[in-house]
Design goal:
With about 280 residues, the protein is α+β, with helices and mostly antiparallel strands. Helix content is about 45%, strand content about 10%. The protein contains 11 helices and 7 strands. The strands form 2 sheets. A 5-stranded antiparallel β-sheet has the order 3-4-5-6-7. Strands 1-2 form a two-stranded antiparallel sheet. It starts with 19 loop residues before the first helix and ends with a helix.
């Protein structure tokens, strides 16, 4: 679905949590018996635990929050629609629910921190730097299933067919890729296509799959160990061509990748968004 489409399943419930109907419903039921500040604080703690090891902790962007709150007329309509369908119980405070939803929409991340989150998902919920088990394996399984089937808005079916990697895009231009048990990546380029996905991010993913057979169904044709070797070779190639995070201080541009289970878990950052990565791959 499009991110702001008003849609429920045959049981009048929003199955997809990565579009607005599902996200607003989750905001309504998440720890709904505790004060608002504790609910958002817990969300930020979880995200920062997922991203721990990145030099850029996640932050709350108050400017974005005020913009979302003042212009979110369709989301207010979605909230009332969910109430009318019984998705949100009568006891749920709709104003507080939407406030929490707008706050969640205003969490700011760099490509470095987003790539660590992706790597944590690739690593079964265990942060590759801190070793903390932030999410259960069942939660990761459910998350990756949703990302694979629904993470790219109306392009999700075509993405699954052509690329076959769990991913989540955002209208900011961010694209997160998760290759389970191998690596996580985050790309940022703000030019969007008609679906609301990053143009260069999608193009990069297509080229990466062509070059390295990352589509998860390639395991039918190639043993996993061979695919793992291809990804390791890719990481080594990129390492030779870009600067390690240890000597870089770029923020929120280009792309980052984190290898899961690698003995040298370096986080890399690149300037120039997805296009420079494509040029590097084509050399």
């Amino acid at each position: 679905h499009g991110f702001n489409k008003i849609s429920l399943n045959f049981r009048n419930m929003p199955h997809n949590p990565v579009v607005n109907t599902g996200a607003i419903t989750l905001a309504g039921i998440y720890r709904d018996r505790v004060p608002m500040y504790e609910r958002f604080q817990r969300i930020m703690q979880t995200y920062n635990a997922l991203a721990a090891g990145s030099p850029n902790p996640l932050r709350f962007n108050n400017t974005i929050y005020l913009s979302e709150r003042d212009s979110g007329h369709r989301n207010y309509a979605i909230g009332h629609y969910l109430k009318s369908k019984g998705c949100l119980q009568d006891s749920v405070n709709l104003t507080n629910t939407l406030e929490l939803y707008f706050q969640m929409c205003s969490i700011e991340a760099s490509t470095q921190s987003a790539s660590v989150i992706a790597a944590t998902l690739a690593n079964g919920g265990e942060n590759v730097f801190t070793k903390e088990q932030v999410l259960s394996e069942r939660s990761v399984q459910n998350t990756l299933s949703i990302m694979y089937s629904c993470g790219m808005y109306d392009y999700s079916g075509e993405w699954a067919f052509e690329i076959g990697i769990p991913a989540k895009s955002g209208v900011s231009g961010l694209l997160i890729l998760v290759i389970p048990d191998v690596m996580g990546m985050a790309l940022w380029s703000p030019l969007l296509d008609v679906y609301g996905n990053s143009v260069r991010g999608v193009t990069f993913a297509k080229e990466m799959v062509k070059a390295y057979s990352d589509n998860q169904h390639q395991n039918i044709l190639h043993p996993f160990s061979n695919r793992r070797h291809q990804i390791t070779a890719e990481h080594n190639f990129l390492s030779r061509n870009y600067t390690s995070l240890r000597s870089s201080h770029h923020h929120s541009s280009g792309a980052g990748s984190t290898m899961g289970h690698s003995p040298n878990r370096y986080l890399h950052t690149w300037s120039g968004a997805g296009l420079r990565l494509l040029r590097a791959l084509r050399r």
